[in-house]
Amino acid sequence: MTRRITRAKVQVADSGVPFRMPNGPEREQRLTVVLHVLYLIFTEGYAATSGPGLLRADLSAEAIRLTRIVRLLLPGDGEVAGLLALMLLTDARRPARTGPDGELIPLDEQDRRTWDQAKIAEGVALITGALPRGDVGPYQLQAAIAAVHDEAASAEATDWPQILALYELLLRISDNPVVALNHAVAVAMTRGPGAGLERLGRLETDRRISAGHRLEAVRAHLLEMAGQHQAARAAYQAAAQRAMSLPHQRYLNAQAARLSEHR
To answer: What are phi and psi of 174, to 5 degrees?
Structure first.
């Protein structure tokens, strides 16, 4: 690490780039990169992509801490507020996301009484204040979606039509396959699993997501919703084989085993 830092210092010195606060378009470009890195740090902490554990609370906490600093420096930036709100609203569910042995508990099965209400209140206040102030960016829309989930008293009470509308706005400004995948889930929850599965078909050729476990996991869930239990079981097994995280593998294999009873 020391050698890397030394090389980076030499490259900065040789580049001739002045060491100063950026202005205008340059600042916006740099801020976009900073927010994206903070988002990735938080995401890896909340849903580790590999290894024995599902969560890395240290990473999530550090991402929130750093985003709070950016928020203090740029209190009027809607996307900074949106990212902080998204982190808080998501991290609020962390106490209910794993069981006693570290097993994954999906959102619709979580004990919402254990969600951190202080974080939810702060996140809702942030996004409520940010949305009316100007152009709405992807972090604000994701935070609004998270707020709809967090404010629902139960999984059954979730306002899926509102979530679908927010995802459709998000799709207009984001070419992210994970957004398209979540949009397919919202379509299924609003219009039925068949409509959601049709949306999934459009993602099969997208290499950014087709090789991972998420696409097959969502397909399995929607096939199960449609009553196609054997196809769902095969999809759960395929998703488990692609998952890099042990908790995800265990959860997906357990779902496949549960469906083995259906003939």
So the answer is: -135, 130
